[in-house]
Amino acid sequence: MTVPDEPDSFDVIVIGAGPAGENIVGRAVAGGLSTAIVEEHLAGGECSYYACIPSKALLRPMELAAEVGRVPGLGPLGPVDAAAVLARRDEAIANLDDSGQVRWINGVPATFVRGHGRLAGPRRVEVATPDGGTRTLVARHAVAIATGSRPAVPAVPGLREAEPWTNREATTARHVPRRLVVIGGGVVACEMAQAMHFLGAEETVMLVRGRRLLERVEPFAGEMVAASLRSAGIDVRFGRSAARVERPVPGGPVTVHLDDGSVVEADEILVAAGRELGVRDIGLETVGLTPGGPLEVDDSMRVTAVPEGWLYAVGDVNGRNLLTHMGKYQARVCGDVIVARAKGLPDDAPALRATADAVGAPQVVFTDPQVCAVGRTEERARAEGFPVRVVEYDIGAVSGAYLLGDGYTGRAKAVVDEERRVLLGVTFAGPAVGELLHAATIAVTAEVTLDRLWHAVPSFPTVSEIWLRLLEAYGL
Amino acid sequence: MTVPDEPDSFDVIVIGAGPAGENIVGRAVAGGLSTAIVEEHLAGGECSYYACIPSKALLRPMELAAEVGRVPGLGPLGPVDAAAVLARRDEAIANLDDSGQVRWINGVPATFVRGHGRLAGPRRVEVATPDGGTRTLVARHAVAIATGSRPAVPAVPGLREAEPWTNREATTARHVPRRLVVIGGGVVACEMAQAMHFLGAEETVMLVRGRRLLERVEPFAGEMVAASLRSAGIDVRFGRSAARVERPVPGGPVTVHLDDGSVVEADEILVAAGRELGVRDIGLETVGLTPGGPLEVDDSMRVTAVPEGWLYAVGDVNGRNLLTHMGKYQARVCGDVIVARAKGLPDDAPALRATADAVGAPQVVFTDPQVCAVGRTEERARAEGFPVRVVEYDIGAVSGAYLLGDGYTGRAKAVVDEERRVLLGVTFAGPAVGELLHAATIAVTAEVTLDRLWHAVPSFPTVSEIWLRLLEAYGL
Prior knowledge:
2 copies of one chain form a homodimer. Helices cover about 30% and strands about 25% of the residues of chain A. By secondary structure, the first copy, chain A, is α/β, with parallel strands linked by helices. The first copy, chain A, folds into 3 domains: about 10-45 and about 100-150 and about 275-355, FAD/NAD(P)-binding domain (3-Layer(bba) Sandwich), CATH 3.50.50; about 160-275, 3-Layer(bba) Sandwich (FAD/NAD(P)-binding domain), CATH 3.50.50; about 370-475, FAD/NAD-linked reductase, C-terminal dimerisation domain (Enolase-like, domain 1), CATH 3.30.390. In chain A, the strands form 5 sheets. In chain A, strands 1, 2, 3, 4, 5, 6 and 16 form a 7-stranded mixed sheet that branches. In chain A, strands 17-18-21-20-19 form a 5-stranded antiparallel sheet, sandwiched between helices. A 4-stranded parallel sheet of chain A has the order 10-9-8-14. In chain A, helix 3 (about 50-70) runs antiparallel to helix 4 and helix 3 packs across helix 7. The radius of gyration of chain A is 24 Å and the shape is globular. Chains A and B meet through helix 3, helix 4, helix 9, helix 11 and helix 12 of A and helix 3, helix 4, helix 9, helix 11 and helix 12 of B.
């Protein structure tokens, strides 16, 4: 059944109700604009149900068990109760029920429209609603695309037919497979391989096309994670990929034929080999764009190729930084700049430009050891022509780390711009380093000089004293 | 026996080989100056053996046990093995053997002199050595006093005779008393009461003269700690003090008569009622000073009342900030400025002034919940006339905190200078907040504006996202 096409008008229409889309709504409505937001699947987005949130819920017990193992006098801990961990994960993802998120949107207040949204010419969005109807929305000021991304599945013969796990199935798993093959060596691959292994996957094999894990961070960090995965018993194979996959019985065992002729049998196969941006089937062609790569935007999140500046793209879909917090950051900029422009106010304040995108986005990987980084790697800084000096230090040599437990192993690396004496990038790898990152994010983003950082005294005995050691090692 | 008084000459003489003294040595020698350091008790100082290090070694299992209790699927943990915890504490304090520290000093290289050092006129230090002799040291450039502090024991009848525990005996305890009375409500009192209670002190009573715990930090933090202590079963009594103490049999039970007429019986009594600065019996009168209060210094750590500027005072003894890391900070300044002055180089660079002392030193209290703060409290900022605005936020409402475990409770408070839009102070209280502090220390010390902090995006889903929430609550 098709209902009559009666357009609704809003100041702003957002397609995609993930964290980025929701933040646009929040800022736009706070600025006095009427706003509608369209979501095909779950309000709250990939992050809330299939990525950051459930993965951390699955990883937290592993982190803590490792910490207990380093502290004499506690434990021993019995075997982990995987069912209890999965149950808390279910709570964390609200059992895949987005009614709380929809209530939040309605309360902003904004109009939530369930269905598949696509552009239908300038400022016009058509939504295919679940009842088979179509609803047309018209934007007075702006349309923002925040459709995120979905897992890419490589064109390996038999792989798609084998119904592999992606991040979605892995993070929402109802059971832990006894044998798991993971394709990929990035964040999702490392985190999920480790989580599943801890929760009971006895045979876990990772097939990593390249020569290292976590290719976007400093090499030492990926090496530390590889060593940790291997010492936990995970079979990490570098320079290997799947040539062919067979799963004769749906839900039954999977056979993976590798490019070296060997074969791995498993109960599940997880594909964690990158993301496909949500640019297809959203009507880009109706506004003169060719769906394909990321939607190029300026620092105010405006799609540069569309005339009159009414189209914005925020989050994964613009390809700037595929990270929830960066999507939210862009969304705050986007919502605020749409408000400024709608009201004819100045639109060029620093808060209306997502300048931090270019600095090197902060990121925490919740493996054991944790890895976190912000800014540029040494390699990138050199490639960009900065006069670089590098300082490294063993975090385990800091008293605060020793006090966390026996055998703490960690490493810090700072990339310094010798000319301006500011930090271009900082990387930490080690247990529980994730919360160390924000200090680096402030220092890198605000370009605090080393000479000022020297007076920011880390408290003794925290792990943060690594900051003192790095500055001393630099020569201050 | 008195050995002949044959003076040794050094560029720099340091009295007191705690962390502050050791850091002066390190910097002075690195700058090319010959240096001697005198220590009566243990090289490494109060912090290494009787304060920061052992207290954190004792508290870490408690912190971790609480975290495990919040994460479904782990545990239950059996009862803590106090003997194992005390054994790791012993390892952390090197079994009170300072030979490793002495080796470090010798290797700098510097001259370590064991004995009680006292000034004997300008640039002259006499050391009463353990063999009963005297050794006289003469400084060509500078003498630095880094004699720290010792626990103050209030003049309560019978208290001193009862041989109470101070931080020294508590942190190095060979056993956990079944019943413990704690006099005090500051950091040592809270940390040690909680550690001992966790390790097995079934009846723990705290007598707090004032109306709150941790009086130097924002009131909400002390209230959270008080609630936590009480819910763990510790009997916290505010507005109460000991009027009289009896311990008829040395090592036997202690009877404490309170100022309200009530009586508490215990097996040990811990006095944690402030510090006495190490200014007595160090010969201050020989250089025209009257021993008593703190040694007043300028920002280069020079004692202002002594002519010719050869005397420096670093760490607790100058009363600026009685914290290990601030003593070390002052020591770096002091060592470097002595080098600059000895060489006739400019001595007024920003790195040669301990300007951070006046900002409000960072500090972490390792109770459960942890408390940490830097900069000014709201009260202090208002008293100093700043145009203050305060922002508070519930840390438990941040996704990253929820992911740490069930029932995470925490609070953050930021004190903003409305005129300059910078942070004057930040306080966090909650489980595992200690490593959040350094970001605040950088922001407060370097006076990063809120508008720049807005672009320092906290990684999702870390607890550091509290930064975003605080800035949003402020109105950004």
